[in-house]
Amino acid sequence: MSSDLDGGDDDDISPISLILPLEETDINKLSLRRNAVASELLHHFIPSINSNLSIRQLPSQGLSFQLWPAATTLVNLLDDHRSHPQTNPLTPTLTALRQISESPTLKILEIGSGTGLVGIAAAATLGAKVTITDLSHVISNLQLNVEANAGILAANGGCVQVAPLHWGEAIDAELIEQDFDLILASDVVYHDHLYDPLIQTLKGFLLGGGNPKMVFLMAHLRRWKKDSTFFRKARKLFEVEVLHKDPPPPGSRIGVVVYRFAAKQSKKPATGSANQG
Ligand SMILES: C[S@@+](CC[C@H](N)C(=O)[O-])C[C@H]1O[C@@H](n2cnc3c(N)ncnc32)[C@H](O)[C@@H]1O
């Protein structure tokens, strides 16, 4: 299989230097200190809607409370899709989903949302109904970030709700019933003990018998050679295709890659000879 899917040979990648979220040079940082927990307010400008999305980060609280590099890639692609749909790599997927969706409003689920920036940007740029999810302890920060952007969401016809979703656990019936068109995620492949639970959750949504046309778009920055194990497992269940590759940042050989996962097409029976004797 193509090295695009596995990310190629990365013996010389330093997990230590790449596990940390990159410094976001295009984001204004304002440090606040509240209840002894340092928080940072990020203002991420989205040119296509001429608005700043505001996100609270709590770096001292762990990796769920920081913006990761692949999230920025997905946000930039969503923004570019709105202003330059003709050349944007997400357009064929989003156009096809809109054509087959029963509603003009796309229904999107984000998993492992972290700060929620990707889901909030998707709702604002696509005018979509988005559910952002993460582990239970992340929910209150997600909710705060949604509320901070309520005006921009309303002005752009977007709507965001928040729910807990733990990979590998039974999916809440309310989430299943929402019949999503699209699942989004960024930087969710990093610890190998999470590969199977993540795949289990994707299986539940993409192959669970709900919407067979549901698609999963995942932005990923490869840090370890072992990441290829996740892709090997995923390819047994899904069609996995590369939609976009960011150029590597200075000093690195690897940039963020955006993948599209979908249910495998069932093989059509050979026409003609077998039935005709
Ligand atoms: C590396 S962070 C990426 C966060 C965000 N997507 C971003 O790109 O900025 C991985 C996210 O996955 C979430 N996560 C980890 N294990 C999870 C699990 N078992 N179920 C649900 N979410 C999980 C973490 O809480 C965290 O928010």
TrEMBL record:
<dbReference type="InterPro" id="IPR019410">
    <property type="entry name" value="Methyltransf_16"/>
</dbReference>
<dbReference type="InterPro" id="IPR029063">
    <property type="entry name" value="SAM-dependent_MTases_sf"/>
</dbReference>
<protein>
    <submittedName>
        <fullName>Uncharacterized protein</fullName>
    </submittedName>
</protein>
<dbReference type="Pfam" id="PF10294">
    <property type="entry name" value="Methyltransf_16"/>
</dbReference>
